[in-house]
Specification:
252 residues; mainly alpha; Hypothetical protein af1432; 2 domains; 52% helix; binds fe (ii) ion
Length: 252
């Protein structure tokens, strides 16, 4: 009897086939392995031996859309980041509620980490990613929304999200550092800006709505300082994070 290959084995085989068909050798970063529940990195010498005539990936990964030389925020949205609809819905909701441009931009970017980089501590990562390019208030609000999402504020009609009960169970308690971040945020002068992100952080106020970028292009233009060298190449303290998004499999 022929043993049935499991879905995981077939996925591994397909991944292996795709990897060996590339011009260069892809070695996953430690973090990618950790996300698969593995601790370790592939041995460079072994990879070379298994792929005669090839070198390690040091350039563009052909499996991903090609990025322009001087990429803009919109290039990242078009070629790397997914899940725009949630961000567009939040920003559209804020726009329709008459929020100011800083708040609308904060809504538009609030989950940029989840949609384009990493989930864990996404408020902190997302804020860091855009910090050199937006007003300090926008960054502060993106960072703080992560903690505020877990705590209601009756004064603005914000309740603990039903979805979080489904996601995390009714007994879930945020970590102590999240609780501390919430308490600190409550006392901050920009508390309400971050709180407004949570108010407009709506998963599907209309599941069929497909909001467009149109109203936000000018808002981005006025409020996001796009570096002329492109995101990733302006020498900012976070340029390496954008470069990692451009070439996530670069060997070193
Ligand atoms: Fe979020
Ligand atoms: Fe969100």
């Amino acid at each position: 009897m022929v043993a049935e290959t499991s879905l995981a084995e077939r996925a591994d085989a397909l991944e292996h086939k795709m990897t060996t068909e590339l011009d260069a050798i892809v070695a996953k970063s430690f973090l990618f392995e950790l996300a698969d529940g593995k601790r370790g990195i592939e041995n460079g010498a072994k990879l070379l031996a298994a792929n005669p005539g090839k070198y390690m990936m040091m350039g563009d990964d052909q499996r991903l859309p090609k990025m322009p030389k001087a990429p803009t925020l919109m290039d990242f949205f078009n070629h790397r980041i997914v899940g725009h609809n949630h961000l567009l819905q939040s920003a559209t909701h804020a726009l329709k509620a008459g929020m100011n441009e800083k708040t609308i931009l904060a809504c538009l970017l609030h989950d940029i980490a989840v949609s384009g980089f990493i989930r864990c501590d996404h408020g902190w990562w997302g804020a860091q990613l855009v910090e050199p390019y937006v007003d300090e208030e926008v960054t502060w609000a993106i960072r703080a929304h992560q903690a505020l999402r877990f705590y209601p504020d009756e004064s603005v009609g914000y309740q603990y999200p039903e979805l979080y009960i489904k996601y995390f169970g009714a007994d879930y308690k945020p970590d102590d550092y999240v609780q501390k971040a919430y308490e600190d945020a409550r006392k901050h002068k920009w508390y309400m800006t971050a709180r407004m992100i949570t108010v407009h952080d709506i998963y599907s106020f209309d599941p069929n709505a497909m909001p467009t970028w149109d109203p936000f292009i000018d808002i981005i233009g006025r409020n996001f300082k796009q570096p002329k060298e492109g995101l990733g190449f302006d020498g900012s303290p976070v340029a390496h994070m954008w470069r990692t998004l451009i070439r996530p499999t670069k060997f070193l």
